Amino acid sequence: DQLAGPEHKFDYMLSNPPFGVTWGGKDGYEKEAMKYQTNRYQAGMPRTNDGALLFLQTMLAKMKPVRQGGSRIAIILNGSPLSNGDCGSGESEIRRYILENDQPAYLTEPYTKAFTPPNIKKEQQFYESDLDFRIHLKLDTVEREISFTLSPEDSFVKIFEKEVKVVFAEKIANLTESLKKAKDKNKAIKAFIRGLEVAAKFTHRNYISDNEYIQYGEDIETFLKREIGKPIIRWIDSPQLGYEILPNKYFYKYQPPKPADELLKEFWALEEEAEKMLGGLGINKKW
Fold first, then answer.
1. Where would you tag: which of 2, 37, 180, 226 has the fewest CB atoms within 10 A of its CB?
2. Is the backbone of residue 140 left (phi > 0), alpha (psi -120 to 50) or beta?
3. Strand 12-15 to strand 72-75: parallel, antiparallel, or no bridges (unpaired)?
4. Sign of the CA dihedral 37, 43, 47, 50?
5. In angstroms, rounded to a whole number, what is the distance separating the alpha carbons of residues 66 and 212?
């Protein structure tokens, strides 16, 4: 950038940045780019394997203020900078900064599944990652809450029972006080645990959020009540809103596929053409 000074502002700018070119690492522009992280790139830093949004932010930084007549810029982008990146990522924060409140927003929702040991085991086996639990326990008028992280190698039943024994230690001690044999004590403890009212939430670190696309201008609370209709994290409780531009939503035109009979005619025509070519080579076709 030979015109990096704050005095360098332009009326018109046009850019066709390279797509998917790495700007980070020892062979990239990362060291130089970080110098501008607090000013030119204050909106955010995209992933290091695609620097197109750095070009865009550079152009924005060189725009004239409206009081000086403003600027006009144009940039050619592929789909990646428009939609890549989850809520809170560099790409999303850049789009958020540029568009402010002018595009649909991401809303996160907790990931939930039926709370059963078989389901939990499937989650562990499939994702091979940790599960975070928050479990509310109730026995008559007594309520307790436990939290723990389950690794792929851990047994849910063992850890759950261990945590229950800790929070209900006094009750379990009174329950098993008169029992002499370990077998009888274990049986009584298991019966006690089965008698608990359990309300559990668990989230997976590889799939902890979901997204909802809401048309700009629609009331978010109204949308959630109409489309979701179940308890979720209220969007106003989360500072993370993301922005995504979906070109296909506006420019895609459906092209119906060819009818099957037309495709079959084309197939057989190609088959005849191939046979003629083989015949010209003196090859007899044999199946």
1. 2
2. left
3. parallel
4. negative
5. 35
Helix (H) or strand (E) holding 75: strand 72-75
Whole-angstrom distance, CA of residue 163 vs CA of residue 141: 19
pLDDT at 70: 83
The CA-based dihedral angle spanning residues 91, 93, 95, 97, taken in that order and rounded to the nearest 10 degrees? -150
126 pLDDT band, cuts 50/70/90, is low
Tokens coding 169: 């230690």
Give helix 182-194 / helix 169-176 axis angle, nearest 10°: 130
**The token pair that represents 65 in the structure block:** 């203020």
Distance from C-alpha of 253 to C-alpha of 157, rounded to nearest angstrom: 53
Q: Provide the β-strand partners of residue 133.
A: 148, 202
Assign 209 to helix, strand or coil: coil
Q: Give the mean pLDDT of the chain.
A: 76
**CA separation for the pair 287, 284 (Å, rounded):** 10
Q: Which of 25, 87, 21 is nearest to 54 (CA)?
A: 21
Q: Give the integer Cα–Cα distance in Å for 52 and 188.
A: 64
57-84: pLDDT as tens digits: 888 888 888 888 888 888 887 777 777 7
Please give the share of the chain, as a percent, with pLDDT higher than 70: 74
Q: For residue range 198-208, what is the model confidence (pLDDT) as tens digits?
A: 888 776 655 44
Task: Indicate the pTM of the whole model.
Answer: 0.42
Residue listed under structure tokens 């379990």: 172
Measured CA to CA, the distance from residue 242 to residue 130 in angstroms comes to 26
Tokens of 29: 């522009």
**Of 239, 212, 216, 241, nearest in space to 228 by CA:** 212
In this predicted model, what pLDDT tens digit does every residue of 150-173 receive, in sequence order?
Answer: 887 888 888 888 998 999 988 888
Report d(CA 248, CA 253) in Å as an integer.
8
- DSSP secondary structure letters along 133-151: EEEEEEETTEEEEEEEEE-
